[in-house]
Amino acid sequence: MFERFQSKGFSVGTVATHPSLKVCLDPSSLFGRHFAILGQTGSGKSWTVASLVQRTVAVMPRAHIIILDLHGEYCWKHDDGDRHYAFADTIVVTLTRGS
Questions:
Q1: Which distant-in-sequence residues (6+ apart) come within 8 Å of 5 by Cβ?
Q2: In this model, does residue 25 exceed pLDDT 80?
Q3: Which run of H or E residues covers position 11?
Q4: Nearest-CA neighbor of 52 among 35, 72, 69, 39?
């Protein structure tokens, strides 16, 4: 059941009780509708979003994805002032006030 969409190349992980069993999804079906990632603080929601977006861009490089990062969870500044993103710089477009 979980490997049904393996040919789509969109593996999202493994089954916790059976680590050798991959969980694969059809990205067209997944992103063809709205869906939510819910959980308590610290449960990995932001990590899950970042992981899904990274995998989506790898499998569907022409996908149109918009993330409004109001709390700065996917971008941070190092001591040198450089911004770093949870995603490849080639897919990040940043908007600043007044843009």
A1: 24, 25, 26
A2: yes
A3: strand 11-15
A4: 35
